Every structure is written in structure tokens, then in C-alpha cells.
């Protein structure tokens, strides 16, 4: 079985490495004019806007007799690639215009060639060409000389000056065009419209089968060596399916929000890309990036493209995000939150706090067609697999963790949160790998994990090559917006301004997550542990959260909606913070007051944001353009005033600690005031117990 795991894993890795380099089948599309076109008698123009805006290759031939036959007392648009009256047509398109004196060829407002009417009798034809490197024009037959001065030389445009093509337009009638011998041939840039070749199909199938065999084999190795036994108390199916009041509240909220709530600002953008995929041959981003593929982050949107073939209604299209939300909460409440320790498992307040933070993230950031909700589910599946690996020393969950982490990363650049969780958990998993290598060696354990990762590579490059994916990435960075790593602070600036990105609904979960993370981190650094909490699991969540915040700086965009990826980790940290606050409240009112003051400051900052939602969902909201106000008073001001009161109370508690026992909310019996203990030492200082000399 060890040999099977090793060989199958290596075969999957080899297939994954080969897949991006294997050939694909492509097609060539072209537009010819006037041949092959049904021209209307009143107009010979044909509209054919290219998504890429420019053509791969453009060849135009116009006979000089046609140019000479145009009216000499008016300006005639013989041929152009944009309508003459379109906005910025001259700045972007190609025009062949005959006026009373000259025939002129211009591209992007630059003259390539010009010939006087009197010289057209010596000219045989006008040739215009444009490809990826060169654009030019020539009056064939004219004596040598500058093309712009009536000569027969080739007039060239500057590099990358290809004309934008929205079709072929002319002032000539259909009869004149057919009799003129004009020939226009446009080769469309459809290099991304590809499908796997036969050899690529075979390699991918072999790789997928090998990866599955490797996973089954390593699972058998786990059982052979006795690692299949459950550790601790198992969760029965009956208890797992028994709903709690918190479960009912979360489920009802998600379902009601699915029917009545807002989606994401990109829902229409993603839906139309999916609907266009069948005709384009691939999932193209034709809104902003000139039809480049969404690869390598396209597998979920490709699924939505197939999903939209059933129905394009909002309720149907958002159904996957609803299912992901319900599954994410089920994993959190049944597996991961109890894994944090008995204090969370037994505290209804902790579970309720986790649910509240989860919903605070999910409703405004994860409920549309964007990938944040699926990223949250992938992150929780990765965390679940990691915890099973750590607690049982099995390798199969480790391989599944690698698979789900890389699949989550393939959703979007900010899917790196799952990868950060894997990195934060690497130390205990490496210890397991080192310990188990004595059984069958290292290769049978490591190869299936690498094979699982190779499976994701096959999914990403299933119909694209490494070259086309790199070209798509290059175009994205060229067009933008792309921001450098040192501009990451803009993400937090956007959260602070009164804009849709800094709306009330987005501030609340992020600030609650920040307060919870820093609170738990401070306690873990100072006290090393929280009573009833598993420190290993908490450190993994903290490490993943901090590492994700760091890695987010390397993503090219800085939208605040991407904070939705913290829904799972934020809920876990909020549950732990609830337990920590409860323990602090039993020990000392001072610490409790400080924590409440910090929480109120965060809530005040959140309440200062407008109740703004993505623009289609602002309709019908009475106060989408202002922050919450109650009885004419800003809610943020009230919360800030309460924070000041809590801070003053904390300072008062701190000053009286030397004189009165601090029992917190526990109110233990038999407590005595420190004032009695100090009765004989009124002239001493705690740092220096020696009595002061009387003056």
C-alpha cells in the first residue's frame, strides 16, 4: 500500500506539472466585408464591436478608382472602424476620408498617408494593415516619397497604435461598395478561446485518477497503522443534527436575508460574464479587461456560468452562497468552536457571540455571487482537516487540507487565508510527518499530499496554458487598478471614509474582529492560556489571522468587501474573547471596564459610518446617506460617551485597588478590604516597605 501511495502521488504530481505546458486546441475567427455580409440598401455599414477592441490582424484594400469617384465637393467617409459621430471616434479609430482636395488615412488622430485627388489616377490601390507590432498605410503606384506628402512610401504609426474596431462603416451605398472591389479582412484576437487537446485530456484524466488512488492509499495506511481511531468523545449524528436556539437563529437569518437582503456590488458583473461564457468559449472578463480569461481564479465562476443556464434569477444565482453559509455555520458550531475548548463548548454566550460575528461578516460581504462566501467555507474545511490531522496523526486529512487550501486560493487572490491557516498549522503537522516516517518512509506520506495539490493545478489549467494565464495576469496589471504592497493602508483608509466601502455594515464586523483578535492575543501573550481553552487551536487561529492580514498586502486590490474572508476566523476569536471577558469579569471590574470601553470605542467608530449598501440595494432605504441617529443625536456620539464613562470607571477601580480587595463580579464571601491590612502602614509605599521618617 505504501508503494501504491508513493507511485500514484508521484504520477499525479507529474501530471499536474505537465498540464500547464501541454497544447490546447484553438480556433480562428474573422470578419470579412463586404463579402459574406448582408448589406442593407440604404447603408453598407456593419457593426461588429470587438471585446478586445483591437484586432489580431487587419488587412484593407481599397481601389483608387473608388476613391477618385467620390464627390469632389464634399467630405466622404469611405471607410472607418468606428462611426464618424461616435464619442472620441477620431482619437481611437481608423478613418479613410476623401474631401475636395485629398484622400487621407488616419489612425488614432495621426495621419498615416495622404494623396491629392489629382494623383489618384497614377495609384492602383490603397493598402492598410495592422497587427500586434505595426500599423501602416500605402498608396500603391504613387512615386516614392513621404506617405503624408503624397508619396508612395509606407506610412507607419507609432507602436501599439492599433485602431479600435467597432465594425466597418462607410458613407457609400451598398451598390457602390459591391462594385468597388473594397476588401476588408479582420482577424479577431481570440487566443484565449481554447479547449484541451487529446493529449492534455489524457494527462489530466490520469492525474485525477492517480490523485484519487493516492488519497485512498494513504487513508489505508492510516488504518493499517491504527490512526483511524477516534480521539476523545465522538459527535453522534443525532446530536449533530439536533438544532439549538443559536442554530435556528442563524438559519432563519440567512434564509430571510437570501430573499430580502442585499447581494454584492459585482453580482450583475459576474452573472453576465457567466452568461457570455458559452458564446465566448471561455469565462471572459469583457467589462474591464478586454476579454481575458478569469483564470487562474475561474473555477467557481465557471460553475456559476453553468448554474445560470438553469435560471438567472437572483434567488437561484445566490443559492450556492446560502448553502455555503449554512454549511460554514454547521462546521463552526459542531466541530470547530467546540474544538477551541470546553469553556466555549459549554458557554451559550460564547456560541451566541460567535454566531453574531459570523452573521455580521456574512450578510454584507458574503451573500452575493462574489467568492468570499466560498472562501470562508474553504477556510473552515481546511481548518477542520488540520484539527483532525493534529488530533489523530492521520495523513489523509493533511492531504485534504492541502487540497481545500489550494482550491480556496484558486477562488481569488484573497483566498490565501486558507493557505495562511495551513502555514500557521505547519509545525504540528510536520512533527506528525517526521514521527510517522519510521513506519513506511517519507515518500508514501508526502507524495499523496503533493498529489492533492497537483489536482488543483489540473483544475486551474484545464483549458488554458501557462502562457495564456501569464498573459491574462499581465493585462490585469497593465489595465489596473493594482496597488503595491506598501499601499495596503488604503484598505483601512477606505474602511474609515464615508463611502460604500466604509459603510456601517462593513465596519461593524471588521472592528469586532480586530477587538477580539487583539484581546485574545494580549491575554495569550501575558498569561499563556485562558481557562478552559485549548491554547494550540487558539494559536493556530491567531497565527492564521495575523498571517492573512500580512499576506493581504500583496494582493493587487484593496476593497473592504474582501474582509469577508474573516467570517469563520472572526467568529472563533469572538467566541474565545467572550470567554476571556467573562473570566476577567469574575476576577476584576477594572479589566472588565477597560474591555467594555474598548468595545464601545469600536462600536462608536462603526456607528459613524453611513448605512450605505451596493448602489442597486440603496433603493428604498430611508437613510442610506447618513449615519444612525436616534432622537436627533448621533449614535456614535452616545457610544463614545459611554466609552468615556467606562474608562473613567476603570481608572477609579485602578486607583482603589491598593485599598480595597477587587473581587470582580464573583463577590466571593469573606473578602476583606485592604484598608484594614494597611491600617498599621499608612506611611509606606508598596514598592518600598520601609516606614517613612516623621518630620
Task: Tell me about this structure.
With about 700 residues, this protein is α+β, with helices and mostly antiparallel strands. About 50% of the residues lie in helices and about 10% in strands. The chain has a six-stranded antiparallel sheet with strand order 2-13-4-9-10-11. Residues about 670-695 have low confidence and may be disordered.
Unreliable stretches: 668-695
Shape: elongated
Main pleated sheet? 6 strands, antiparallel
The number of helices is 26
Into which percent range does the helicity of residues fall?
40-55%
Strand order of the largest sheet: 2-13-4-9-10-11
- Look at the structure and give the mean pLDDT: 86
Category by helix and strand content: alpha+beta
> Strand share of the residues?
5-15%
Radius of gyration: 34 Å
The end-to-end distance, rounded to whole angstroms, is 89 Å
Work out the number of β strands: 18
Structure characteristics:
695 residues, alpha+beta, elongated
Short description:
This protein is of the alpha+beta class and 695 residues long.
Per-chain topology:
Layout: H1 2-18, E1 24-26, E2 30-33, E3 46-47, E4 57-63, H2 64-68, E5 76-80, H3 89-92, E6 94-98, E7 102-107, E8 110-116, E9 125-130, E10 135-140, E11 155-156, E12 167-168, H4 174-180, E13 183-187, E14 194-196, H5 198-224, H6 237-241, H7 245-260, H8 267-280, E15 284-285, E16 292-293, H9 299-307, H10 314-317, H11 319-339, H12 342-345, H13 348-365, H14 372-392, H15 396-409, H16 416-424, H17 426-440, H18 443-460, H19 466-479, H20 489-496, H21 504-527, H22 535-551, H23 567-587, H24 589-607, E17 629-630, E18 633-634, H25 635-655, H26 674-677
Antiparallel strand pairs: 1-14, 2-13, 3-12, 4-9, 4-13, 5-6, 6-7, 7-8, 9-10, 10-11, 15-16, 17-18
